[in-house]
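Let us work through a complete example step by step.
Step 1: write down the sequence.
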Amino acid sequence: MLSQVYCSGFQPFRQRLLPWVQSTALSRSHRIQPSAIRHVRSWSNIPFITVPLSRAHGKSFAHRSELKHAKRIVVKLGSAVVTRGDECGLALGRLASIVEQVSVLQNQGREMMLVTSGAVAFGKQRLRHEILLSQSVRQALHSGQNQLKEMAIPVLEARACAAAGQSGLMALYEAMFTQYSICAAQILVTNLDFHDEQKRRNLNGTLHELLRMNIVPIVNTNDAVVPPAEPNSDLQGVNVISVKDNDSLAARLAVEMKTDLLIVLSDVEGLFDSPPGSDDAKLIDIFYPGDQQSVTFGTKSRVGMGGMEAKVKAALWALQGGTSVVIANGTHPKVSGHVITDIVEGKKVGTFFSEVKPAGPTVEQQGEMARSGGRMLATLEPEQRAEIIHHLADLLTDQRDEILLANKKDLEEAEGRLAAPLLKRLSLSTSKLNSLAIGLRQIAASSQDSVGRVLRRTRIAKNLELEQVTVPIGVLLVIFESRPDCLPQVAALAIASGNGLLLKGGKEATHSNRILHLLAQEALSIHGVKEAIQLVNTREEVEDLCRLDKMIDLIIPRGSSQLVRDIQKAAKGIPVMGHSEGICHMYVDSEASVDKVTRLVRDSKCEYPAACNALETLLIHRDLLRTPLFDQIIDMLRVEQVKIHAGPKFASYLTFSPSEVKSLRTEYGDLELCIEVVDSIQEAIDHIHKYGSSHTDVIVTENEKTAEFFLQHVDSACVFWNASTRFSDGYRFGLGAEVGISTSRIHARGPVGLEGLLTTKWLLRGQDHVVSDFSEHGSLKYLHENLPVPQRNTN
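Step 2: predict the structure and record it as tokens.
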């Protein structure tokens, strides 16, 4: 049966597979229930991706990002992946997810092969049912029902289980693959099939013919006849390998068939530097030949022949033979997602085996350097941190020519690829660098008492005093697009707050970011904390960085609303500070000044329309329609070439209206503006709460009472009276700079400067105090007296 390129759901599969599964079971009490099949249906939404699949075999891929070009792939399913937790029977939901992913890749034009365990487990289930059935009949006839509970099941020989389970396992695979119009073929092998030259040629020819006909070969050791494995008899070199388990079988098959990629699925996330579960165990992202000396192997999995050591040996053997290898977890599809397709897409899943070591440190190593460097930075005196920032400000002006030359390279490479607003963000100039230097010096001045500032002092009891002091958050990950001027701003704020910093800039600003980062590290070097700020230059995707929850304490995205949304979605266990949209409103009240309105609207919308604090929706009081003030607003927008979108109520007042807005919740980021009519200030506030993004909202009015009502009732991060939305900025607020504008309600809100990058800790100083002294019959009593706090230095 030749495959067709489509991906179907699981409803037909359930209807066709359920009768077969139930007829296969030998006892009603052990039949697979319909709910087990229903679980499968949630795994039918894998994206279909078309990529060029041409590659000469002979050398493994150097980077994960190249795995999407893999044409021929072997997927090895370990016993722990295929079998249920009770080691008796198959994990049907996991198998269905795996089959779907393999089918999607097959239908993309790849050549997929499976090396599967599970025959022993499936056979054990069938034989146990048979034994239970026969024992229950005999004991019911001779001993009565009371002894049924005492029946003991004898130990089942593995070869017999394999013989009983092979046919059922293959029938299950066939039923699953059929739902995707894919044919599967079973091949059982032994060691002899690889070591006997004629048998090896026959096997090779059979596999190639199956792949040519778009059939998925399902390969397994013939456990019904295979002899017991001899320890330490395999993986002695490229030309010598003994098939003693499915790990070595998969490696041998991958090299024999010149496959591009071998995916080994187990019950652990990948390879750890020490046994998983131990206190210091860390997942190894990339493993290189020779690194096995630094790894301590634990015990093997609960089922199966091999352990992690066998998998690593097999992986290195396959890698030496020209096949890339990834070891990953295949037992938790709800947690790990579509692990097979994720690996092929180049996502950071499991452990990737590579022969090419990167020139610089890995992102994990950079995270550790930022952590240790940040802690050293936090211990410096405030004057020393300020000195570093002053030096960085001087470097921005002293090295201006080199910075602008690097920026020119970025602009030349981006010409024709980036839209005009993004090119404007990418561009640096002498005036921008001068403004940056001024902002950095403001940060240096405000950093004098930032870290370690006492916020509260309490006398708990005699000689027992408590302090709450400011401390750095830890390690910040700042991801920014197109804006190289963001790098020195964020670097200065991190230095002032004593935080370690990981920076991930857009590739369109590569040259600019590189020189600015070098200048930041040069400034840090004057006090020996160069490694506190790291620029991520590896091929890590943003989504992969967002998974480093043990290394990163806070993610700050700087870029488009889509970037922010993507990061908020991808972040796993790491807080994200930012806003997904900047839908800023301006309400023009009936008592607004004619002179002020046009100036404020022009500045808010036209000064920099791509900014997140630019005006997007103009709310006008109904009484102002068909007045000179309204006409002036429209004339000004026409002169500035702003495209107007009419809200539903505004459109109803006009005979010939502009294009009606598609959504009142739109961030245009360009010279476009939505105009809507409201009947009152309350309606304006309700509109802002319903369609706004809690970023920045403005009222224009001469009525102070109306203005105060608006300021108190609008629930946004920034609320202004008779001021442009563009004032919502850290530099304009006097913060020196900002890492972004936050619309969240926890920790920091609005433009986030130095204060927003600090948290607190509690310091308790006592003299042999114990809690039992404060009990009902104790000798001490709580005082809880507030003590004076040292005055903050505001100079």
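Step 3: interpret the result. The CA atoms of residues 82 and 118 lie 6 Å apart.
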